[in-house]
Amino acid sequence: MSDASPAAPGGASETAPAGPPRTREPGRGAAPEDGRRFGAAGALLRAARPKQWLKNLLVFAAPGTAGLLDDPGPLAWSAAVFVLFCAAASGTYLLNDVRDAARDRLHERKRARPVASGRLSAYLAAGVGVVLLLAAPAAVVPTGNWALLAVLVGYLVLTSAYTLVLRNITVLDLVAVAGCHVLRAVAGGAAVGVPLTRWFLIVVCLGALLVVAGKRETELRRTPGAARARGTLGGYSLGYLAQVRTMASAAMIVTYCLWALEDVVGTVSSVIHGASIVPFILLVLRYHLLVDRGVGEEPEEIALRDRPLQVGGVVLLLLVGLGVYLE
Length: 327
Description:
mainly alpha
């Protein structure tokens, strides 16, 4: 989740008269003054976590690997699904923040979230969250794309089950969060009617599990009081989560290699597919290094800030794209 550093106590300006420091409850140091400074709209946008929308780019994966993104129709559908998942995800984040406000105040960084810190009204956050959750599937109904509607509703059901039950069950919380990532990728295929190959599904499932395990491992390793803020963390050990990462990444690399080398017929596209194995493996190795350094708690932050990861991602996308669209 995306978090920012807590605001200065009370939001006081530098010219304010000096006085004894005031004590506050954890997470409440930015209350009414910051609310007035940034406004409800700014607090609401931050609570919607736009950085998390990066995950929704997975909806372009299936149409992209099927060679359909050069067609305006599938491209428009994919873009529309991206927007729908952004709305659905933000609605979920808002409702989660309302539900978890008390627990977030115990977390070193999550206490700065708008609802937990008091900068955003819980009633406003809940109201907008409900509207977004209802609007996303409602927008699909007129299109008659029932497969996409089923995937989107399944995503909402899974996120709700995670919030209410699964987040408190060790191992199942990993599977649930990974499943949300997988449903994003499945939705992209459902939107344009692309059948998903077994290679695609296996790589996406294992990649999602790798990222979620890395996130949990970093939370457990570097966040003071993490077990208090997220109860299931107490049920994990660093060794176990590292083993999950290793297992998921090893199986994912093997599966990707089998896909990339499936059609070795000497064509240009097959050579390019084979070449894409190199940046793919380097990306996995880089991610493991970052997690071991303790910076894997926010995967979207890694993607936005780590230059080697960005370069590797661009090279991988170029090679896969060339391999697909030159066929």
